[in-house]
């Protein structure tokens, strides 16, 4: 992109009232990357956040860049929020990605590699090992690696091999003795995914990590005997992984088979990125560019002293030898609304009051205990759940299997379109189905993202319904890393709403209205806009008003323009948006009264909270939905109203603490960039990822947002 074109595109981008979703996401990944540069973090934490940015970027290329190529490859029109059409936007996007890639590489080489030895490990190559260690590696290669490698030659007689997504690959250019250069051949050697990323050599005072590609490179000659190797080129490809089952024209097709077919397509989707070690063969790269119809801006170069694929660093981070080098978070505390956690029967407690859980500060165990007790309780008649993502060794699945064995009615909606968890969900769902559970494999034209559970129990000649509504998945692994909200209740209004919603999901029912739920795809966007407009009207009439929203992403333009109108009416709008934010705050005449913060730190902020002041008659909701087109139009979502005074104050306090944070917080600027929020001279550090462990009821009950 030349300077004139760049300036022109920047002018178009900056003149738009909306921020590009994809460019905003890149800014989010920069905030994650910023965690890897913080001086107070150990090198293991820095490597962790670098690995997260790499994993994020892989998914971004597979899904978002893959989606863009769907438009480019099939000549479909697409106008981004930035105002740019497909090709100019791709040029801008790739420029931003290239710059981010260079920052990652520079940080790794300058700030991380030189400081590894002082922490008890180094990344090295085979040549720096002792003769005995080299011999040990050679034996390891011959026994464990060599039999797994398959050189695949491409020439006029053989078809181009299928290279797998995100695997390291050697492209080897060879020439038979006496042959002319035009007869050279290109072979590919893929490094199988089940080989560890590093070969570990443990010494008394240090662990040496040898990248597996270096082990193979040293012994590559054994795969190409009696030919001349012109060049050895290490690279990695990313393929388009974007598909939208919701848009399938054949809705009545065998749904599970459709999912499986799409999973296979991920392996052969069009190439959208090549990462390659510098010093590569130009002949080879030209061949690959032509083969995959890819341009130079999608080729990402890596210096040889660096490494390809920073996601491999998880092997270093996960070494038990360094377990104590990662910060240990405090143990979870008892929920304010359930101080007797673990000592009283949760069924009895819920008859008298609601419980609000705030993970990971509160354990997920009350939810798991409830399901496990329900599975064994003779008076429990039915358990209904929606499941989006599960832990690898899920207590939820085991409890539901046990419930089915005990003769209870178990209904489970497994969302098999949960991106990258499809295979696990299909496997777990089949287990339940074989055990006699009523299993629904998603709803064909929408994705089920709502988090709901209903337990029906016979208590003393009456029926009690125990309900859980949440913002996060029923996943005990991520519950230790993600901040989420969960409400446990026997409230009849919510129980009726949840029962109705399950009838919608599992049957053919269209309820007139819900009392305490807002659901998508039917009502959510319009209901939220009504609440926003009410705040605007209150402000115009001189009444107190305020909008406070905490979500993962804000992308829906109808919501954004409603918030703009609220700002212009004088409503103070405070938004805590962790990731994508397509709204421009602080633009003159448009959004002066809107402030946007992003919290990025030790925990992944995943909870969604909506609070409207409503002239003192507050409306406070939590739930599964972000403010995105897909959430409102293409997903089954729910937001649940929280009325109990202590619980509503807890949600308000979460927002208040987020607004006070000056350690993990970034302030969004009008141009879409972000500035870290730091303590002022007379101000102490306020880190929400620590402060939430120290809450008390009195402090929470005093909270005010207006």
From TrEMBL:
PANTHER family: POLYPHOSPHATE KINASE. GO terms for molecular function: polyphosphate kinase activity. An intermediate of this reaction is the autophosphorylated ppk in which a phosphate is covalently linked to a histidine residue through a N-P bond. The keyword Transcription does not apply. Residues 133-315 form the Polyphosphate kinase middle domain. Residues 345-509, 517-685 form the Polyphosphate kinase C-terminal domain. NCBIfam families: poly_P_kin (TIGR03705), PRK05443.1-1 (NF003917), PRK05443.2-2 (NF003921). Belongs to the polyphosphate kinase 1 (PPK1) family. It comes from the Bacteria. Keywords: ATP-binding, Kinase, Magnesium, Metal-binding, Nucleotide-binding, Phosphoprotein, Transferase. The active site is at 449 (phosphohistidine intermediate). ATP binds at residues 56, 482, 578, 606. Its cofactor is Mg(2+). It is an enzyme of class 2 (transferase). It catalyses: [phosphate](n) + ATP = [phosphate](n+1) + ADP. Residues 19-121 form the Polyphosphate kinase N-terminal domain. InterPro entries: PP_kinase, PP_kinase_C_1, PP_kinase_middle, PP_kinase_middle_dom_sf, PPK_C_dom2, PPK_N_dom, PPK_N_dom_sf. Catalyzes the reversible transfer of the terminal phosphate of ATP to form a long-chain polyphosphate (polyP). Pfam families: PP_kinase, PP_kinase_C, PP_kinase_C_1, PP_kinase_N. Its EC number is 2.7.4.1. Mg(2+) binds at residues 389, 419. This is Polyphosphate kinase. CDD domains: PLDc_PaPPK1_C2_like.
């Amino acid at each position: 992109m030349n300077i004139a074109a760049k300036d022109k595109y920047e002018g178009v981008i900056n003149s738009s009232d909306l921020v590009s979703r994809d460019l905003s996401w890149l800014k989010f990944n920069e905030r994650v990357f910023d965690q890897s540069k913080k001086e107070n973090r150990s090198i293991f934490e820095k490597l962790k956040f670098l690995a997260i940015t790499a994993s994020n970027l892989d998914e971004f290329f597979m899904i978002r860049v893959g989606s863009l190529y769907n438009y480019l490859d099939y000549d479909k029109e697409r106008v981004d929020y930035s105002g740019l059409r497909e090709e100019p936007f791709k040029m801008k996007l790739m420029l931003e990605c290239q710059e981010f890639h260079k920052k990652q590489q520079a940080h790794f080489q300058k700030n991380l590699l030189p400081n590894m030895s002082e922490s008890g490990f180094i990344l090295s190559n085979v040549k720096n090992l002792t003769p005995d260690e080299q011999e040990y590696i050679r034996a390891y290669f011959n026994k464990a690696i060599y039999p797994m490698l398959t050189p695949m030659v491409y020439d006029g007689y053989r078809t181009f091999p299928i290279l797998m997504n995100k695997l390291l690959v050697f492209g080897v250019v060879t020439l038979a003795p006496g042959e002319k250069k035009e007869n050279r051949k290109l072979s590919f050697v893929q490094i199988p995914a089940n080989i560890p990323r590093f070969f570990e050599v443990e010494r008394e005072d240090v662990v040496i990590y040898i990248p597996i590609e270096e082990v193979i490179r040293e012994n590559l000659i054994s795969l190409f005997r009696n030919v001349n190797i012109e060049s050895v080129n290490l690279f990695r490809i990313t393929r388009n992984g974007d598909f939208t089952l919701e848009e399938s024209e054949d809705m009545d097709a065998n749904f599970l088979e459709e999912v499986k077919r799409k999973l296979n397509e991920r392996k052969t989707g069009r190439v959208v990125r090549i990462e390659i070690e510098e010093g590569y063969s130009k002949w080879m790269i030209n061949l690959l560019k032509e083969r995959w119809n890819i341009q130079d801006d999608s080729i990402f170069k890596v210096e040889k002293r660096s490494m390809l694929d920073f996601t491999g660093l998880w092997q270093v981070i996960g070494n038990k030898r360094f377990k104590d080098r990662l910060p240990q978070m405090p143990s979870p505390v008892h929920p304010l609304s359930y101080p007797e956690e673990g000592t009283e029967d949760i069924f009895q407690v819920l008859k008298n009051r609601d419980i609000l859980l705030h993970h990971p500060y509160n354990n997920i165990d009350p939810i798991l205990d409830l399901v496990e007790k329900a599975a064994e309780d003779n008076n429990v008649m039915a358990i209904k759940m929606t499941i989006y993502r599960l832990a690898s060794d899920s207590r939820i699945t085991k409890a539901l299997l046990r419930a089915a064995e005990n003769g209870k009615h178990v209904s489970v909606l497994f969302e098999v379109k949960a991106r990258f968890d499809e295979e696990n969900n299909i496997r777990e769902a089949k287990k339940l189905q074989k055990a006699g559970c009523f299993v629904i494999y998603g709803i064909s034209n929408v994705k089920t993202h709502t988090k709901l559970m209903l337990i029906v129990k016979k208590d003393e000649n009456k029926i009690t319904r125990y309900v859980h509504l949440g913002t996060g998945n029923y996943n005990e692994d991520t519950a230790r890393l993600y901040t989420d909200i969960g409400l446990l209740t026997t409230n009849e209004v919510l129980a009726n709403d949840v029962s109705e919603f399950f009838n919608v999901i599992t049957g053919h029912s269209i309820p007139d209205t819900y009392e305490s739920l807002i659901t998508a795809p039917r009502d959510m966007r319009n209901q939220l806009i009504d609440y926003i407009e009410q705040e605007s009207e209150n402000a115009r009439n001189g009444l107190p008003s305020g909008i406070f929203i905490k979500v993962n992403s804000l992308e829906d333009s109808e919501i954004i323009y409603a918030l703009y109108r609220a700002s212009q009416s004088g409503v103070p709008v405070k938004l805590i948006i962790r990731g994508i934010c397509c709204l421009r705050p602080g633009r003159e005449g448009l959004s002066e009264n809107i402030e946007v913060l992003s919290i990025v730190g030790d925990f992944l902020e995943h909870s969604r909270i909506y609070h409207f002041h409503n002239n003192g008659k507050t409306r406070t909701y939590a739930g599964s939905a972000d403010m995105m087109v897909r959430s409102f139009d293409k997903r089954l979502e729910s937001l649940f109203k929280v009325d109990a005074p202590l619980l509503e104050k807890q949600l308000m306090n979460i927002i208040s603490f987020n607004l006070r944070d000056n350690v993990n917080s970034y302030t969004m600027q009008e141009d879409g960039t972000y500035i870290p929020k730091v303590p002022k001279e007379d101000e102490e550090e306020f880190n929400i990822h620590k402060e939430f462990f120290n809450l008390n009821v009195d402090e929470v009950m005093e909270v005010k947002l207006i």
